[in-house]
Inverse folding.
């Protein structure tokens, strides 16, 4: 794979799940920080013995002051979401068309359009060249993929945008594939029997006001899902 394409790979849009400590803070994941009250020359025993995590840290990114970690040493929520969105768009718009190879094409009733299966294999050597320590949201390279690499699959199909048998309106595809994706996956993936939300993060109602990166996105949300699978030999 060309080195220029490897440089486009993100450190968060990867197959290996994130560790808990790599996620933004959440009340379920982190205990409340101890309250720091001014004292008259004396520190309480609680604060002396348990001073708590370090306070928010910042680093300079492209000449601007960008907060990267919170008081728990976790990535701040909005920079984290921005990084994931940017990496996901690059993956779909640039990496997938340039690197995924066709494997097969078949019918998928009741849809009239054929579905093309594509595949991408990334070697362990190529994975090591990915910019894991991104200054915006750094991440350590997981041991799980450092030696075995990654294998990606994608499906592509072209459907007529109309409410007819064998196809559907774009809004219907959006509802079935994007909105509530894990739950709807139970309907067309026989080995997925259930899915439910584990965690959900609070995001500002108007994230576009938080920075220009959000101006092209709507309905931004972040949650963690758990799926029950049936494995068949």
């Amino acid at each position: 794979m060309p080195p220029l394409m490897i440089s486009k790979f993100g450190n968060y849009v990867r197959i290996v799940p994130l560790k808990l400590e790599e996620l933004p803070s959440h009340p379920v994941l982190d205990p409340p920080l101890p309250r720091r009250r001014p004292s008259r020359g004396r520190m309480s025993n609680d604060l002396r013995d348990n001073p708590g995590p370090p306070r928010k840290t910042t680093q300079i990114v492209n000449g601007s002051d960008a907060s990267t970690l919170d008081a728990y040493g976790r990535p701040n929520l909005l920079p984290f979401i921005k990084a994931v969105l940017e990496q996901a768009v690059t993956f779909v718009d640039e990496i997938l068309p340039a690197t995924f190879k066709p494997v097969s094409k078949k019918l998928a009733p009741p849809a009239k359009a054929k579905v093309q299966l594509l595949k991408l294999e990334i070697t362990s050597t190529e994975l090591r060249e990915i910019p894991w320590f991104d200054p915006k949201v750094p991440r350590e390279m997981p041991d799980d993929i450092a030696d075995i690499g990654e294998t990606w699959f994608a499906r592509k199909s072209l459907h007529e945008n109309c409410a007819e048998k064998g196809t559907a309106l774009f809004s219907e595809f959006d509802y079935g594939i994007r909105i509530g994706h894990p739950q709807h996956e139970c309907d067309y993936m026989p080995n997925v029997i259930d899915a439910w939300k584990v965690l959900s993060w609070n995001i500002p109602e108007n994230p576009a006001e938080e920075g220009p990166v959000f101006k092209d996105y709507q309905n931004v949300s972040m949650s963690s899902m758990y799926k029950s699978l049936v494995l068949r030999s």
